[in-house]
Amino acid sequence: MINGVASKIFNPQKEGGQPVIVTQQAKSRVVPFRGVLYGKDKKAITSKVKVIFRLYNSQSDGKPLWTSKTWDITPNANGEFSLILGNKDQGDIPIPANLFYENAALFMGVAVGGGPETDPRLSLPSVASAAENPERSQVPIVDWAPHADLLRGYPPSLLANPNTIPVINSEGKLILASPNAAIESTSGEFSLVGQTLSIAALNGAVDLNSNVSGGTAINITAPNLSSGVLLYGNLDVPYTVADLIQLAAQGKIKFSVDANGNIFANGDFKTLGNIEVGGQVQLGSYSAPPVPKGIGSIYYNSTGGGVYVWNGTAWIQTLGFTGITGPTGPSGLQGMTG
Fold it and tell me: In CATH terms, is domain 5-136 a member of 2.40.10?
């Protein structure tokens, strides 16, 4: 008992209340308070009594930084009471928020029934001290540090830059405003999961970079796809000269398909099936016999004019122009070659 007032911890988490956290943006704040009133006979006071609360930055002297209204308090049968100091809705004087981040410590004086204040004054604990020693707390756990709007020193931000905490905005978007923003996983598997998933670059390319040294670098699967398309790309710009796809090795293009469907391959084309052509077939043109790829290789000789086939030992002209030395054609030795 201190001059008829004994303080009792008010734990907002257990009592269902929510303490108001001080931020530098707030102009005022409130402090939930719970206490117990006793008389000199050590019995609980249950009748109405007037109480005034004051805040100081010193435990024993100094002028009050804030003074409440005169509260008319009617304790319960155990002398207990609770109220919210600084609550304008209850006619109290708002507590300036700057008191909590401009002072290293705050202390509360309580005067009951027009008598002197409690001695010593009650200390408003910090978050850490109150959480570690709840039995010593006389007021709820609140944060009155100079940067109480920070989380471990980092401020929240709807447009997150370095050293800020991203906040999801009212549209459900998480926006990173840094010019080199990245979300990085340092171990294990990193997954992006959604009912549908969209990746868009508003003013640049989309780069997929795998650092594997073997196996498959990029794997696209659709185990439940029974119809439709596995991979689709579209160019909306008409008359474009862009390629639909380019594949390169060591910086040199090996395969490409342009917007008109023309295919370029810088290498051999092998198939186990048939090749069906709806237009012309143009053979490679050589001025001298090339090194054959194997039996059945075909080339066009641009010097003498004619199509040659490799029979395994020599190049044999199969299609040529007129001439007695040419292969036979539909009209005989003197006719056009066929």
Answer: no
